[in-house]
Specification:
5 helices, alpha/beta
């Protein structure tokens, strides 16, 4: 029943040319996030005190770490990461529109190039979203 309802709603939106509300919500969430709170950010001395999204750049994608949420091994594509960041509630951005990121500290032979490419793709995506990235050293 729910699948039929979703299909009908989406087909109606496609016919009218309207965007699904979820897409509009994603745009509005990031647009409502304040500028980075640099004075507060400068006082952070320990990663456990970073309350905004944190991204680890890996050869096979990205790990998104959210404050207070247990870590998992799931790797996101750039597209999935962008959608996830865009849809986070404003409350997930207490330090303003800034994320911390680092390259993975666990590397093997042949991973330098994919890590470098993923890092560049992340920087381009965050610039498009108007989100500042603060790079942290790898472990």
């Amino acid at each position: 029943m729910n699948l039929v309802l979703v299909s009908l709603v989406l087909s109606g939106l496609l016919q009218t040319g309207e965007k699904p509300p979820e897409t509009e919500q994603r745009v509005h969430n990031l647009d409502r996030v304040s500028a980075p709170r640099d004075a507060e950010i400068r006082t952070i001395r320990d990663a456990k005190d970073w309350t905004n999204p944190f991204i680890v750049v890996c050869p096979e994608g990205y790990e998104l770490i959210l404050h207070g949420v247990p870590r998992n091994e799931k790797r996101l594509t750039a597209k999935d990461l962008e959608a996830t960041l865009s849809s986070l509630p404003v409350s997930r951005w207490p330090l303003g529109k800034v994320i911390a990121a680092q390259n993975t500290g666990l590397k093997s032979i042949g991973t330098d190039v994919p890590i470098r490419e993923n890092r560049k793709a992340l920087e381009v995506m965050l610039k498009r979203l108007r989100v500042r990235v603060d790079w942290w050293p790898s472990a």
